[in-house]
Amino acid sequence: MDVLDLSRLQFGVTTVYHFLFVPITISLSFLVAGMQTAWVRTNNEKWLRATKFFGKIFLINFAMGVVTGIVQEFQFGMNWSDFSRFVGDIFGAPLAVEGLLAFFLESVFLGLWIFGWDRLPKKVHLASIWLASIGTLLSAYFILAANSFMQHPTSYTYNPETNRVELNNFFEMLFQDTAKITFWHTISAAFITGGAVVAGISAWLLVRGKSPDVARSTLKLGAITILFAAVSLSWSGDSQARIMVEQQPMKMAAAEALYETSAPAPFSIFTIGTLDGSQPLFALDIPHGLSLLATHTLNGEVQGINNLQAQYEQTYGPGDYKPNIPVTYWGFRFMIGFGMLAALWAVFALWVTRKGRTPKSKWFARLALAVPFMPLIGNSFGWIFTEMGRQPWVVFGLLETKSGVSPTSSVGLVGTSLVVFTLLYGILAVVEFDLIRRAVILGPPEEVPDPFLADEETGDRKLSITY
Predict the structure, then answer these.
(1) Which of 52, 35, 202, 229 is nearest to 133 (CA)?
(2) What pLDDT score was predicted for residue 266?
(3) Alpha carbons 405 and 4: distance in angstroms, whole number
(4) Confidence band of 454 (pLDDT split at 50, 70, 90)
(5) Contact criterion met (CB below 8 Å) for 241 and 294
(6) pTM score of the predicted model
(7) pLDDT for residue 131 is more than 90
(8) In this predicted structure, what is the pLDDT of residue 373?
């Protein structure tokens, strides 16, 4: 492997690892805020206990996400300095706003929420978790806007003297359709993930008989969140597919391993044959499926890989403009499949717990603990498909990936740091998993005194269980 391959692998490892924490952070912040709001409005202690319990899981995840995110941003300068130099005027703007505004909002108000239980007025404390949640959304949007420029460059001027692209209109770049649809789709996926975490853990607690009053309510909350998010995810995914056909038709063709332009074009559930789909032996197809997905018509034309390769050679010059077909083909299906599995489990969980029923099967409990991993796997394959499907471009149509790598990097340097990062992230994964496992085994606290009630004798606030 050369420097380019190692640099791509390293960035892929850090990105996929970091994104395990991002959707949980975004969605759990809102779900925990909703639990606390339910407690404030109803004064029902079970919602306070739920807030404390899932708030602890949220904070463990948030801490890991911050650590891995910082390392990821450093790689833009270390491994991809030519890319950073080329798009720095544009790429740096949303990332700077994310750090100065969104992450600041998120971290400051999260700190107030953590340490303000027995110090802030009840409604002010509640507002702090909602503001932190809004900060996570803003942070996600600015980062996705930067990524959307890589998918669909807009609002720029190329300066041949400096060999850089320069920003023309910040707000036009920030609110282009690609960014808005990507944000909608990503947040929907995040809420499926958060709902699966809440519902899966709650189902396990319910079967084990731990705090059943809390577990039953949070199971319902998590399962309903999954289902609403799944509908939103399907809708946004359809919109994103239409934009993909317009902006990156090669990615859509690679998602189906469609080599020749077809009208109508089928969508294959799976294919048996060569990995790249060029010589299928058996395929389970949905007739007209890809045409419907890409064009919203049953007989719409979808361009094939070979045709697009010829077009790109005429536009951009000689070269191989095909992405890794096996990765894009199967990544697209795993993305959809694991999300659908989580939604099906949510329907099943609501059915077996209807009218106060309590499932007793150990298999249900074990499956419940596997549920949070389903959307996490789907998210990972979704981003792998998105980024690998854009290859060989790091900025589509403007800069090839091989031109963005740092010229001073070496195989030994990148290879060593890749091994170190992988080992370190493996250790962090074990630490986080153990911390969350311990929290889940303990379950929600059985009793939590209201941290906002003044002591009748001293007038001091009672101390709550701290994190």
Answers:
(1) 35
(2) 84
(3) 6
(4) low
(5) yes
(6) 0.90
(7) yes
(8) 93
Paired tokens of 205? 């607690």
Question: What is the radius of gyration, based on Cα positions, of the chain?
Answer: 24
Side-chain half-sphere CA neighbours of 77 within 13 A: 5
Give CA 18 to chain center in angstroms.
Answer: 9
414 vs 396: CA distance, rounded Å: 25
- Our CA angle for 227, 348, 21, nearest 5°, is 50
- Hey, what are 457's tokens? 């004798």
Beta carbons within 10 angstroms of residue 432's beta carbon:
17
170-198, pLDDT tens digit by residue? 999 999 999 999 999 999 999 999 999 99
- Residue 288 near residue 297 (C-beta atoms within 8 A): no
Beta bridge partners, 267, equal 286
Which of 22-26, 68-72, 452-456 has the highest mean predicted lDDT (pLDDT)?
22-26
CB 129 within 8 A of CB 108: no
CA angle (329, 291, 309) in 5-degree steps = 55
Are 9 and 411 in contact by the 8 Å Cβ rule? The answer is no
Question: CB burial class (10 A; 0-12, 13-18, 19+) of residue 293?
Answer: buried
- Model pLDDT for residues 148-162, shown as the tens digit of each residue: 999 999 999 999 888
Task: Enter the DSSP assignment of 462.
Answer: P
Query: What 3-state DSSP class applies to 407?
Result: coil
Q: Which residues pair with 302 in a beta bridge?
A: 262
Confidence check: pLDDT of 274 > 80: no
Residue 367: its H or E element: helix 362-370
State the Cα–Cα distance between residues 436 and 371, nearest whole angstrom. Answer: 15
Local confidence band at 455 (pLDDT 50, 70, 90 cut-offs): very low
- Are the C-beta atoms of 342 and 196 separated by less than 8 Å? yes
Q: Give the Cα separation of 350 and 223 in Å (integer).
A: 7
